[in-house]
UniProtKB/TrEMBL annotation, chains A, B, C, D:
<feature type="binding site">
    <location>
        <position position="54"/>
    </location>
    <ligand>
        <name>NADP(+)</name>
    </ligand>
</feature>
<dbReference type="Pfam" id="PF01264">
    <property type="entry name" value="Chorismate_synt"/>
</dbReference>
<comment type="pathway">
    <text>Metabolic intermediate biosynthesis; chorismate biosynthesis; chorismate from D-erythrose 4-phosphate and phosphoenolpyruvate: step 7/7.</text>
</comment>
<dbReference type="GO" id="GO:0009073">
    <property type="term" value="P:aromatic amino acid family biosynthetic process"/>
</dbReference>
<dbReference type="InterPro" id="IPR020541">
    <property type="entry name" value="Chorismate_synthase_CS"/>
</dbReference>
<dbReference type="GO" id="GO:0010181">
    <property type="term" value="F:FMN binding"/>
</dbReference>
<dbReference type="InterPro" id="IPR035904">
    <property type="entry name" value="Chorismate_synth_AroC_sf"/>
</dbReference>
<keyword id="KW-0456">Lyase</keyword>
<comment type="similarity">
    <text>Belongs to the chorismate synthase family.</text>
</comment>
<keyword id="KW-0274">FAD</keyword>
<dbReference type="GO" id="GO:0005829">
    <property type="term" value="C:cytosol"/>
</dbReference>
<dbReference type="GO" id="GO:0008652">
    <property type="term" value="P:amino acid biosynthetic process"/>
</dbReference>
<dbReference type="GO" id="GO:0004107">
    <property type="term" value="F:chorismate synthase activity"/>
</dbReference>
<dbReference type="InterPro" id="IPR000453">
    <property type="entry name" value="Chorismate_synth"/>
</dbReference>
<feature type="binding site">
    <location>
        <position position="322"/>
    </location>
    <ligand>
        <name>FMN</name>
    </ligand>
</feature>
<keyword id="KW-0521">NADP</keyword>
<feature type="binding site">
    <location>
        <position position="281"/>
    </location>
    <ligand>
        <name>FMN</name>
    </ligand>
</feature>
């Protein structure tokens, strides 16, 4: 069964294919009375928008969002908020290659195996274009959690990591890579451009931090905050791994080194470390919620890969078109959006069970 | 809100605390007519059972499961299957330390922050004891997917990894670590025993493989197979990271190296690699589904850690009791169970939408 | 929490207000490969369309549906089907009366009490206009259950019932009341027109029959077929009662009179009566599924009713505008749509658990 | 698919068959800190308990509830509350008749058609015995809504209705029929006893009132308060109809007579009538929530009814055993429980979206 809805009480559904007339999201369960307009959503879409540098796809979509419902006199009414983004740059290209043969790494074969049928134009529903709908929904989610500050950045491309000693959050928006380390950003220009010229692609790691999350959000056991975040991140195209806090590195620590000791603080316990990434037992601890997400290299490359056709014949395929040489870069606003969507949902779930505002 | 149910159509709910009279699971949506008895479930519980070696907790629970409903004349009826495991070894120990102060790394503080209140005996609901219910439910799930073979093993403890060149699946059950590399297993004896004697603990990495999954399972976009698996694994106590296929390593590959080329095979495409872990676009490809899970070191250690009391006073805490020096070891049957539960659910979801048996 | 989604695996969500730019539905979980175009949906919308006779509201909306996603080369792809209907006849009228005072029988006061705020233009989200989205979604549902024949009709207006001895299904579309009894239809012309001229309104009873439903659909216990139908019908604006089969009349029968005896038939048991309305234990029996729905009289009337303003002042209100004198009439296609939506969902649920097809 | 869970955030699942070892419910999402013990639940079970008069089944079950989880030191912890009731009076009788032939009006044929298989002992999962689990869960729900007063009563048996002029709520518990009219109660003794002696059975109408529900509960559109109530009531065994407020009678009123006028009151608007049953637009208005439920006559009767065997042979069947001559009577505490369960859920949903305590 196709489940295109995410969330428990603050929920969003997305629809649309990369080459249909439009894509969109419906946000359900948003609290009433929140001031909102397209201007609150557009900046996040602009951040994700293709065609802003040579390091991202040259497809050009204005990605202008329209609010079709759920808002009256500039405020949310508590009813579903329908968001629509028209697809404008559907270049009438030739998709016969993709229609005939399966692109390795893409969902082509899996969709055919499942549905017996697929919209092959630009990846159809499995296109990363769908993530624009998430980003729009995420902008609404941020309004629900005004005290939470969320930011993400790329910490590694093609195996070349930032130096945390040079970490400067104010640098993130100063380069086309959402990179907090200006020297790494410089290196990545060559790295990514080189991959692009080779017709190849690179993977990346995105990190995301949410501060201002109070202790107590999370719905044990099967909607734990970390479980929901893992589901949210793993649903993003090209994501193959998720770590909360130290993640796999924690598996290499001894218990005493992995502990996050506490001491009395002004407003409750003060933590002396954050190996846990702000979550214990599936519930937020009041520390910043931190996670890392692995993006595989873009599967669309100009280097021929062995494959088979729908008819079962051997073939080589190269994926022409306007592709991101490193899809993880544009994953940054998507990761932020999913973080916001999960946290908004968990905030409302928490007050459902435990009350409070 | 507390969500103690997992799954979309094949669903299970668990209940129970480590020191209450019993724990249990209710499995809902199981197909009718499957032959089943306690004997189909007990071996999986025995595999997870504490007290089987000095490398796991010395708590002794027979963990005998009873089927209370949903089965008639040895077959599932299609109605809820209620499974109950009585708690028998609830040693009347002194929990006043835990009641008073928060154990770092545990859910103590988070539960108090959320609920204003917690059952502090042995971790209460946040105890790993709950995972016995999952293992029982997972045994039912396996009956739904008889053609799928699932096995997990420990690939790394405390940073000491197996050598894949020595990988031998038949070794997994020959040592107390579920280790497929007999030499690593030997090293781990000392490693784990040393940590235990130090009153410390170690993390671990568990890997799981499901073969026999046909192409086409997975419910894009927000119940993608990998997204569901990530949620399932991250809901297990002490898990901090999940990778599908190559996971974070994929982020360091170039596109042409990460591709899983295909060529014509006897029964549809044959894949020449499996970097993707058997999932593309959230749908199974017919290759083995592979994932890795990071377990942090057990938080209960005998080495004092700085903490605060419920009243906000500074304190040191050591967690006496019968704890696993490496909780990841007993995570193996739990990871397998969650894999089975997700796959059973996805199988039924697939046939809901796409038909077939 | 606002739940604007209905269904378990074949699910639809609706969005939109009567006076926003558009309304719509997203249908999720539709099986792939079904031939579909706007032409399959439009006739159902036309049936519900306002302004077709003097017995329905004079608001004129073309109610043209557009398919925005989920369809490729004329067939469903298995991905979400986004349906949009633009609002065109949003007469720029004066809503200051409604903004200031609560219309008794309407959701005005309840929405304000819940949300502290409401879109008062034409009822906003609580307007019966939303039901156009359901009718569109219902047209898709019908494609999922091609062997099921669904039809509804009005059996009673303002207490004046049809004579079942004159029941003629072919008459239903021959009069503006969806009335299967031509003599009743004639009487109703005067009745409804009289109410309209008085500025008053009338209630109605709608009956719906689905034949061709095989035995075995229904998901006991809390998604029983009758329970789902009751929820579906009671979610329609102005509905105050639902009966399955004989409904309240069954409460006046003795056991032996209410029994539906069976005898051997060509294809399994043949029933000699259908008091149960085709459902036993929440599961279809193979007989026609039958239900009755009570619509209250339209709350918007030109006769002044005592009320209070938002500021708590006493006031009288009359609801000017273009209203249906008997909202039950246009409820007919909505009841049919909800029947189709429930049955499509239950069909897929059934095959999820029990296989087949 | 079998859905044995009800509710959105305050949720309960039931399990168990009439002739298995036990039945039970798991209540999930209950707010923490509520004082609770078995003594809070038992009185409601006692009210429903069989064998208390000759007008109900002579099956004798003590129906003693045990709390197995979710409670610590006499208070709810916010984790799942597992409730178990052992089956003790499973008379080892001969079910070969029921195994062989389908009892008309029962779920026998439908279960076989769906699952190919059924637990025929005493109705198995479709037995009204399951409702004991609901009553237990409902007792927990009442703790969540302490300011709401819920009571139900029988208003009609076998077509013989109470006289509302003699309505006296204090009489409800003074007779075996939960009848608020002592004269009707007297008549019903003969009526019900007569049916019992004839081996026949009678239907009934149960009415339920919840006062103290504040304005604003209800989750439009597809979890409207009335829609949820309709689903809840229609899921009870033998229920064939549900009315909110005036229900079908409203369909016979003119708009001005069905209006519930308002005037200024001490605490917000005061309503001058309650045709709507306390719900408008799916949201509570602050008036008492009122509904009516139709129970068909018990299908188990001693009068032979024509039927078929599993093998398709013609047969007559009479249902021996200890049955309620009027199952609606013992439906009273079940209707109350479902009302409580829906209201508790809607309270928590409301505060999820709109905040407040």
């Amino acid at each position: 069964m196709s489940f295109n809805t995410f969330g428990r009480v603050f929920r969003f559904s997305t629809w649309g294919e990369s080459h249909g007339p439009a894509i969109g999201a419906v946000v359900d369960g948003c609290p009433p009375g929140l001031p909102i307009s397209e201007a609150d959503i557009q900046p996040f879409l602009d951040k994700r928008k293709p065609g802003t540098s040579k390091f991202t796809t040259q497809r050009r979509e204005p990605d202008e969002v329209r609010i079709l419902s759920g808002v009256f006199e500039g405020r949310t009414t508590g009813t579903p908020i329908s968001l629509m983004i028209e697809n404008t740059d559907q270049r009438s290209k030739d998709y016969s290659d993709v229609a005939k043969a399966y692109r390795p790494g893409h969902a082509d074969y899996a969709y055919d195996a499942k549905y017996g049928f697929r919209d092959y134009r630009g990846g159809g529903r499995s296109s990363a274009r769908e993530t624009a709908s998430r980003v729009a929904a995420g902008a609404v989610a941020r309004l629900v959690i005004p005290d939470v500050d969320i930011f993400a950045y790329v910490s590694e491309i093609g195996g070349d990591a930032i130096d945390y000693a040079r970490f400067d959050a104010s640098e993130i928006d100063n380069n086309p890579f959402f990179c907090p380390d200006p020297e790494a950003a410089k290196r990545w220009e060559q790295l990514v451009d080189g991959a692009r010229k080779d017709g190849s692609s690179l993977g990346a790691v995105v990190e995301c931090v949410a501060s201002g999350v109070p202790a107590g959000w999370g719905a044990p056991l099967y909607a734990k905050l970390d479980s929901e975040l893992a589901a949210a991140m793993m649903s993003i195209n090209a994501v193959k791994g998720v770590e909360i806090g130290d993640g796999f590195a924690a598996a290499r620590l001894r218990g005493e080194d992995n502990a996050d000791p506490m001491r009395p603080g002004a407003d409750g316990p003060e933590f002396l470390a954050n190996h846990a990434g702000g979550i214990a037992g599936g519930i937020s601890t009041g520390q910043p919620v931190k996670l890392r997400v692995a993006f595989k290299p873009t599967s669309s490359i100009l280097i021929p890969v062995e494959t088979v056709t729908r008819e079962g014949e051997a073939s080589d395929i190269i994926t022409r078109g306007r592709h991101d040489p490193c899809v993880g870069i544009r994953g940054v606003p998507v990761v932020e959006a999913m973080m916001a969507l999960v946290l908004a949902d968990q905030k409302l779930l928490h007050r459902a069970q435990c009350g409070g505002d």
